[in-house]
Amino acid sequence: MSLKDSYRKHRKAYFVGVGCVILIFGYWFYAQAKSKDPKFTTLVVRRGDITSAVQATGTINALTTVSVGSYVSGTVQYIFADFNTRVKSGQVLAQLDPAIYEAQVTQARGNLENAQDNLATLAANVQVDEANLAKTQANVSYQQATAKRSSDLFKAGIVSTDSNDLTQSTLGQAQADVLSAQAAVTQAKATLAQAHAQVTSMEGGLKAAETSLKYTTIISPIDGTVVARNIDVGQSVAATLQAPNVFTVAQDLTRMQVYAATDESDTGNIKVGAPVTFAVDAFPTELFHGRVSTVRLNPTTVQNVVTYNTVIDFSNPDEKLLPGETAYVTIPTGHVADTIQIPNPALTFKPAALRTQLPQIYKQYNISREASTTHLGGWQVVWKLAPDKKDLIPVAVQCGITDYNNTQLISGDLHEGDVLVIAATQATGSTGGQRPPGFNGPPGGPR
Fold first, then answer.
1. What is the per-residue pLDDT for 366?
2. Of the candidates 316, 247, 235, which has an alpha carbon nearest to the alpha carbon of residue 91?
3. Most distant CA atoms of the chain, gap in Å
4. Which domains does the chain have, with CATH numbers?
């Protein structure tokens, strides 16, 4: 190969290498310039239906649940009902050992019989004392007549003074006997009244003993299903300060309720009679239906979070759902059809690069203070992507109901097909920022 041919070959390789270097640097500068532009995540405004709802967690309960307790203490002798047993009102559930209470009844009955016998004796004594009183009173009447006759004879000079004095003395003794007999009758009647009170007390003691004996037989107060049994044969039941719960009976499991803990901010939107759907872990693919029956006024506060129990009635004809299951409740509170839907992430987005310029931007676009800061009347600010895909335009919107994905547009310059920004990323080291069209403030100088 000649020197000239070698030179031509190396010169060609040189120009190819220089061209590659230029292309590499050109692409690098282009990529650097392009990377300084902000990157936006956007969602398109669409039209559709929105249904707002309150979501809460609750517990399934029977319509009526009765705790059956033991009024008396004793040892469990027999058990006639177990878990899931269907029972009728008045049906025997368990029997405590009645021996000690039977002895108390026998003792109380004996005490009553003794008191009744004593009462009969005292009543007879009163009759005797009253008879003695009547006899004494009759004697007084006789002595009074005798004294009068003796006095008349004395005045006529027929009897002597001694005879008249004796008659008057006999009358005085008879009158004293009357007073003594009256005192005896009064005392006998008082003793009789005390005996009557004792008999009444003994009757009460007998009734109390018989009642305690009756309570050794534990019965069901309602028709229902036994959902809990807390005793076993041979176990001692101690009813001291309060009646221990030995059975729990749920009435009619075909009609049940959900107690849903709803936040205080949601209670104003929940209406009695509103349809409700809920799911349970036992049947994850099924939805169950009910209606709101009431919002209970008793609040529950846990770590400064205030909730109220919303009671939901539902039918359970197959008894698929059981007391105590967790229910995941959805309560519809509003519905609008064919409305402009604002994606919820757009309502929380604020361009970080423009944070210091927001007051000037809001003023330029006539964004009210209520919309930009306080959100009064449902007014908020969203950011629309300009046609150049680089700048942002603030739009004040008045919001309505939400389904937690989209929010209803009530008022505002927003239309179907508009592109809203929900997030933005800026290249590291970039000194520029997003600017709305027509905004002449810093940074970046005039447009």
1. 87
2. 247
3. 208
4. 39-50+340-425 (2.40.420.20), 100-214 (1.10.287.620), 254-335 (2.40.30.170)
Instruction: Give dist(CA 85, CA 65) in Å, integer.
Output: 15
pLDDT, tens only, 306-342: 999 999 999 999 999 999 999 999 999 999 999 999 9
Of the candidates 231, 243, 128, the one whose C-alpha atom is nearest the C-alpha of residue 184 is 128
Quote the percentage of the chain above a pLDDT of 70.
Answer: 77
User: What's the mean pLDDT in 277-304?
Assistant: 96
What is residue 96's DSSP assignment? E
Q: Do 417 and 45 contact (CB within 8 A), yes or no? A: yes
CB 259 within 8 Å of CB 61: yes
Q: For the segment 109-122, what is each residue's pLDDT rounded down to a tens digit?
A: 999 999 888 878 87
Q: How far apart are the C-alpha atoms of 293 and 313, rounded to whole Å?
A: 6
H/E segment holding residue 293: strand 283-302
Statement: residue 173 has pLDDT above 80? no
d(CA 2, CA 8): 10
Distances (CA, A) of 104 to 77, 107, 118, 242, 437: 19, 5, 21, 22, 98
pLDDT of the residue at 311: 97
Confidence class for position 431, pLDDT limits 50, 70, 90: very low
The DSSP result for 358-387, as a single string, is HHHHHHHTT--HIIIII-GGGEEEEEEEPT
In b/e form, how buried is each residue of 108-140, taking b as 16+ CB within 10 angstroms? beebbeebeebbeebeebbeebbebbeebbebb
For residue 269, the tally of other CB atoms under 10 A from its CB is 16
Reported pTM:
0.64
Cα–Cα dist 413/47, whole Å:
14
- Structural contact between residues 218 and 248, judged by C-beta atoms closer than 8 angstroms: no
Separation between Cα atoms, residue 244 and residue 222, nearest integer Å: 18
Residue 372: φ, ψ to 5°? -85, -25
Measured distance CA(403)–CA(51) in Å, rounded: 6
β-bridge mates for residue 311, sequence order = 259, 294
Element (H, E) at 135: helix 99-155
Joined together, the tokens standing for residue 159 give 């009897």
Average pLDDT over residues 254-276: 94
Please, are residues 182 and 133 in contact by the beta-carbon 8 Å criterion?
yes
